[in-house]
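Why show two proteins at once? Because comparison is the fastest way to build intuition. When a single record is shown, students tend to memorize it. When two are placed side by side, the eye starts asking what differs. So, the first record is below.
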Amino acid sequence: MEEEKNYKENLHFGARKVIFQNAHDLRRAETPAEKIMWSYLRNRQLKGRKFRRQHAFNKYILDFYCHECWLAVELDGSIHDEKMNRQYDDMRTEELNSSGIKVLRFRNEDVIKNIHEVLERIGAYL
């Protein structure tokens, strides 16, 4: 019972209600790359690991998250090339790492054009 409570508390790491709502909204407006990625990650298709999409964690929303491995998979479009966005992504990754979460980042184009290579890299971490 205590183990399940700790699992659930650590699952979202204190995310507030507004973060859950934003995550819900993002699940309804997935990008083409997210749609492709989810088709390969859902239902424990990758090495038997459970992934969640648009997962609320603390003050962030993780594109894809495997709680069993504390792994976040982030998909980045061209907006992430802008300096301010790169700095924010770096700070966010640092914070997630300090919470024990490993972050793997992939370009949307890589997911669309080379999904099997992307899945190999994720699988290598798992």
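Second record. Ask yourself what differs from the first in the token line.
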Amino acid sequence: MSEYWVYVIQSQQPRIGKKGKLPGLHYVGCTTNVKRRLRQHNGEIVGGGKYTSMHRPWMLRAVYGPYEGRSEAMKAEYALKRGKRGTARTKWQPQDSIWCRGLGPLHPDVLELR
């Protein structure tokens, strides 16, 4: 069985709100290969999502896991999406959910791609 990871990426494209310029949107997903998936979201290789293609470029902000299989990872992704919004998604803690695992913003892939 493959190891799965839940990741949080942030668009580097600012958005305009009622109070002016705001930081870019956050997106949560799950994958077996975080670096490859980020490249897909950024259009470097085929396979990125339609939604993320409109808000490029993306930066990796947090990685949670590993999870044993897709089912577990999707439960964690759902828990993160339900419990946190925006930047708070990069500050997910084990006390927030039983599904929170790993280093989040301190994951080596996040630190390497900064």
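One difference worth noting in the second protein: The first strand starts at residue 3 and ends at 11.
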